[in-house]
Amino acid sequence: MDKTCCPSYTIRLKASDFVPSKEQHRVCKRIERFLDGQLDAKPRDQTEDPSTSSPSEISDSSRKKLMAVKKGENSKVEPIMNDLSEQIDNSVQICVQSGEFPSYIQVPKASVKKVLAAKMKQLAEGPEELLYTSNIAFQIAAAIKCTQASEKEERNSGEENRLSPAIISEKLAQAMNQLGEIPGVSVKACKGHINFFAASKVSSFDRDVPFGTISKGANSLCDDKSLCATKSSKSPQTRKRKLEILLKRSSFDPEEHELYKRYQLRVHNDKPEHITESSYRRFLVDTPLIEVPPSGDDKVPPCGFGSFHQQYRVDGRLIAVGVIDILPKCLSSKYLFWDPDYAFLSVGKYSALQEINWIKENEAPCPTLQYYYLGYYIHSCSKMRYKAAYHPSELLCPLRYQWVPYEIARPLLDKKRYVILSDYTNSRCQDSLLPLTSETLVESMCEHQDVEPGETRDRFLDNGEEDEEMDEAELEDSDSDSDPENNTFPSSAEDNDISNILIGLSESRFRYKELKPMMNPVGRRHLEPRLHSYKKVVGTELSERMAYELR
Questions:
Q1: d(CA 164, CA 181)
Q2: In this structure, how many other beta carbons lie within 10 angstroms of the beta carbon of residue 4?
Q3: What Rg value do the Cα atoms of the chain yield, rounded?
Q4: Is CATH 2.40.420 what the domain over 11-37+211-250+287-375 is classified as, yes or no?
Q5: For residues 338 and 319, is the Cβ–Cβ distance under 8 A?
Q6: Burial (Cβ within 10 Å: 0-12, 13-18, ≥19) of residue 152
Q7: What are phi and psi of 524, to 5 degrees?
Q8: Residue among 457, 445, 468 at smallest CA distance from 527
Q9: Does an H or E element contain 143, and which?
Q10: Which residues is 331 bridged to in the sheet?
Q11: CATH 3.30.1360 in the chain, residue ranges
Q12: CA nearest 293: which of 284, 303, 283, 280?
């Protein structure tokens, strides 16, 4: 580790503590928009069977067929758009001749564009289907403004303010309606745009691609509620596309192998001769893990333990495969390969969120299953730093096998490639806890108990002269959980109940069981009742996640 250029640290995340970032929320929303049909994909080889060939192997005949289809679609659209452009030009001339538009401006040629699915929601009004739009009003308003500025015609300053894009678009829409109805199209003005709607009220999501839902197959890693809690404007039954996430035992699948080859060729620029079936089997299929089938008890999840392949399918098409190990205490993410045509979906980030959600959902049937392992973290490699984006992560000290929070390790690794993380953590803990056994702890306890530091300083110092004649009334006031008759503190069994309470000290976070050995007996006697009361108020789960600050 101290000699290699890329020291690698094992990284993990406790799934129950995971807090998604804004970017991770955006990934989930992007998937939602894609499934709802608001975000379109244009795979280069959509017309061929993805399981049989790669983009580099598309035949000339396939390319010609694809070009012919596109040309046929354009030939259907262009005459309609040309007719609409002519209608707009005629309406502009009518407005100029009637004096509604200045006659001295150079009127630009109108252009009409087809509205993409992603823009429909922004420009559409009512239940009608928006087909085409034109921004000619903005061009006319800009031409009027530029002409007036160049000629310095102050007499038209009022007209400049009056002819805004919104007003111009309304005048043009009115003129077009006066010219006569356009067959199958209705015209409306909206915020400066001239929009053309289909005469029949048919939703655009009913066309082109069949409806689908987010569904799960056997042993799926997700269900309908696992999309990072994002809400969609459409119910699963009315989605444009169908996403399936299926989980199966690790085995060779020709379709997966073809996707792997495409991924390695286009993403990693590997040579075709290096991507053999045998190398693929050794890398992602063969496993030393012993398969453990589901047992129906609370020790094994419904899918069992072992190595698995997690398939992501959109409308039946395989777009990604995640290779994972499911073990008694964790889910370990080993590798992910995906269809390069769907790179815009950030499938890698999305799959990690799905796997974290799966751990949370299966923690009930299998309580030991708590952690998400992301393999090795290499701080000196920029391509590997994405793994630390899942907060709060921990790195394993390679020398003493102690887990260290990433927030502590990061500034050290920024300065030096290889660091024995446990050395720094232990020294930091010692430095932070040294004041805890003396003045800092005294001041903290006195602050909470409204006692003057000078009065009780000797009681807290671990100087071998512990004052055993403490006022019993004071003990009763400070210990709401103690026995009122005997003035005894909780037993050692009850002490274990507060051992995992999270305590904040000197900008660090520690469990009480880590602090307890370094405190003097009097300090513990004053702090433990406080922790019992604190836990009683906030509950066990929150007390182990929210820091009890000692200042």
A1: 26
A2: 11
A3: 34
A4: no
A5: yes
A6: exposed
A7: -65, -40
A8: 445
A9: helix 136-151
A10: 326, 372
A11: 80-205
A12: 303
Which is it for strands 330-338 and 371-377: parallel, antiparallel or unpaired?
parallel
Read off the pLDDT of residues 92-129 as tens digits, 9 standing for 90 and up. 888 877 778 887 777 778 888 887 765 555 544 455 67
Beta bridge partners of 393: 13
pLDDT at 10 over 70: yes
How many helices (H) does the chain have, and how many strands (E)? 18, 16
pLDDT at 182 exceeding the cut of 80:
no
Q: Whole-angstrom Cα distance, residue 54 to residue 264?
A: 11
Sheet holding 393-396, edge to edge: 215-216, 243-249, 306-314, 317-326, 330-338, 371-377, 9-14, 393-396, 403-405
Asked if 308 and 333 count as a contact pair (C-beta separation under 8 A), the reply is no
In degrees and rounded to multiples of 5, residue 32 shows phi and psi of -60, -45
* CB burial of residue 180 (10 Å; 0-12, 13-18, 19+): exposed
Cα 160–166–170 angle (5° rounding)?
Answer: 110
DSSP 3-state of 314: strand
Residue burial 207-240, b: 16+ Cβ < 10 Å; e: rest:
eeeeebbbbbeebbbbeeebbbeeebebeeebbb
Beta bridge partners of 377: 9
| 8 backbone dihedrals φ, ψ, rounded to 5° | -115, 135
Report the alpha-carbon distance of residue 447 to residue 454 in Å, rounded. 12
Range(s) of the chain covered by CATH 3.40.630: 11-37+211-250+287-375
Query: Residue 414: how many CB atoms within 10 A of its CB?
Result: 9
Q: What angle, 0 to 180 degrees and rounded to 10, lies between the N-to-C axes of helices 439-449 and 521-538?
A: 50
Over residues 373-427, the pLDDT tens digits come to: 999 999 988 888 899 999 999 999 988 889 999 998 999 999 888 988 887 766 5
pLDDT tier at 54, thresholds 50, 70, 90: very low
Determine the residue type at 317: R
Q: Contact 11/373 with Cβ under 8 angstroms?
A: yes
* pTM: predicted TM-score of the whole model, two decimal places: 0.49
Q: Write the DSSP symbol of residue 212.
A: B
Give the strand order in the sheet containing 508-511: 508-511, 502-505, 548-550
466-501: string of b/e by CB count within 10 Å (b at 16+)? eeeebeeeebeebbebbeeeeeebbeeeebeebeeb
Q: Which amino acid belongs to residue 377?
A: Y
d(CA 201, CA 190): 18
Indicate the CATH number of 80-205 among 3.30.1380, 3.30.1360, 3.40.1350, 1.20.58: 3.30.1360
Q: How confident is the model at residue 30 (pLDDT cuts 50, 70, 90)?
A: very high
Confidence label for 237 from pLDDT (cuts 50, 70 and 90): low
pLDDT digits (tens, 9 = 90+) for 471-508: 343 333 434 343 433 334 444 444 458 989 998 876 67
Residues across the chain? 551
- Residue 338 backbone zone (phi > 0: left; psi -120 to 50: alpha; other: beta): beta
CA torsion angle for 81, 82, 88, 92 (degrees, to 10)?
150
